[in-house]
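For reference, the entry.
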Amino acid sequence: MQLHRYPNNPILMPQSDSPWESGAVFNPGAALGQDGRFYLLYRAIPAGYTPFPDRPGYQNYISSIGCAVSDDGIHFTRFAQPVIEPSEPYDQHGCEDPRVTQLEIEGRVLYLITYTALSAPAWSGMGDRVALASTEDFRAYTKYGVAIPELKDKDAVIFPELIGGRIAMLHRVEPDIQIVYFDDFDHLVHPDEAFWREYRAHLEDYVVMRPQFDWEAEKIGSGCPPVKTAEGWLLIYHAKDDKGIYRAGVALLDLEEPARVIARSPYPILEPKMAYERIGDVNNVVFPQGAVIKDDIIYVYYGAADKVCCLATAKLDDLVDFVAQFKA
């Protein structure tokens, strides 16, 4: 099974008249707001970055996070300015790849935003940390800082319900996907050094998924926040092979023990085929980050070739039935 691309992709492209998003807009997280509208939080980079002469990547490459809103999930209106941007030492070199989870915290609905914070220049291989922010209305935002200290880490997604009374998060210390639980919101936003020291010492114990198939050979990482279904938590994730191609995969995790994989497709559900996925700032990339369910359709928002934002869809039941046949 393959996700169905929206025929008029990309849905968001760089805008030359908006300097902060004139170079690239990609890797969008997504959520339904309390007003019933679709919200995208996407990574944006100004034009003017240049390739390194002797290695992959770009110089002068600093990301911020923009927001766009839509009534139909297809046609989006962008906010004029970034909603999250570098402002602290831990994210001074970029705010990348936001994911959004709606979660009720102490009687109020919050949209928790995990993103990659760069304390060192992009492409340096140093300084990547999972950071946390939140909003209630997609207008005002609060930044809490680094959520997972002292780990080179990315691709964090928070479950939209408490698991056993605790907040659960998937994250990725290469090349695997791990899980961590927080006792409460305070535990999430105020890292406990003793807790994290013990966690780091036993990181292997918290692995949920490892690369398993050829198209996952180099690494995997959580894509969209998990979606609750009757069959389990539906996890759409990304994988990179040994040729540098990024694809999207799908798995089911146990509802009560999400560290247990119930089913996992041996085949990708989306891979670079279209020109906008094969050619860009990083070629051959589809990178899912946002999933919204409306009228039994799953809207999957993804970055293509590190340049543009795109949409693919499926009937939710069809996708669940597809992956459920591949028992782990």
The longest strand covers residues 95-105. The chain has four helices and 23 strands. The mean pLDDT is 97. The radius of gyration is 18 Å.
